[in-house]
Amino acid sequence: MSVRLKCMLAALALVVLLTTVVVPGQAMAASRSTVHVLMIGNSLTRSNDGTNTTVTHLKRLAAKQGITLDVEVLAYGASDLQKYAESSYASASKRAITRKKWDYIVLQENQDVQIGKSSRYLNGARKLYSYIRKNAPKSKVYLNAVWGERRGGRFYGTYYNPRAQKNCIFRNTDKVADSLGILRRQIIYSGKAFWEYDSLPDKGNRRNLYSDREHGSNDGYYLNALCIGHRILPKPVSRVWYYGAVGKPEAKLMMRVVERYNPR
């Protein structure tokens, strides 16, 4: 081998070495991305004590995938989508929608409206969706079909048992989605996951998903975060090792329920 060829090979090896060595920290920064999410709802999106446990779990779930989640929550207690679209909180929602370029916007309707006032659900969602499409056309919109009350309850003067609540929530959400042209895979069926998990035989490890008759517990909001994350994050939740405070076996059971009712 000639001296000239040896020099060329040595130079090539040096170039390869320099282009493959990365300073620690830069590799992590390069592999991480930021996803911007706006969540509009009420205390079922913002936990009842105001600690945003759904958001906390969602951020941790994203971090396990190398993603930084930038989340803004607009969630006034007992509010519904029509209030965000045209009355009490319309100015706040419009400011939030146009504040930055959101990758995802998650809309969560009030339980009472989902169950007992489908026309109000459709009207509020339609007007809010129209504003989003006009002012944030690149944002992907999701509907979070949440859970109802653990036991029977009255909604707009009519009594609904848990089964009737469930049927109304999902039927009405599907109708809203169809009317707006939102695909089924853009519906987050957190309520289905709640009811399915809650109905499983208890072998002594079952977690309590409710903190009162309607709001989630920390474990309930962990399940809600799994449902949202399974829809908007790259990996299925069963491939992400984040178990909240429920422990691996029970978290894996929750993940199976989530994936069953939220197929990708």
What can you see in these coordinates?
The protein is of the alpha/beta class. The protein has a single domain (31-261), classed as SGNH hydrolase (Rossmann fold, 3-Layer(aba) Sandwich), CATH 3.40.50. Helix content is 50%, strand content 14%. The chain has eleven helices and seven strands. The chain has helices at 3-20, 26-31, 53-63, 81-86, 90-99, 111-116, 118-135, 162-180, 190-199, 218-232, 248-261, and strands spanning 33-41, 67-75, 104-108, 140-144, 153-155, 158-160, 187-188. Strands 2-1-3-4-7 form a five-stranded parallel β-sheet, sandwiched between helices. The chain has a two-stranded antiparallel sheet with strand order 5-6. Helix 7 packs parallel to helix 8 and helix 9 crosses helix 11 (248-261). The longest helix is centred in the middle third of the chain and has 19 residues, at 162-180. It is globular. The model is unreliable at 12-31 (pLDDT under 50).
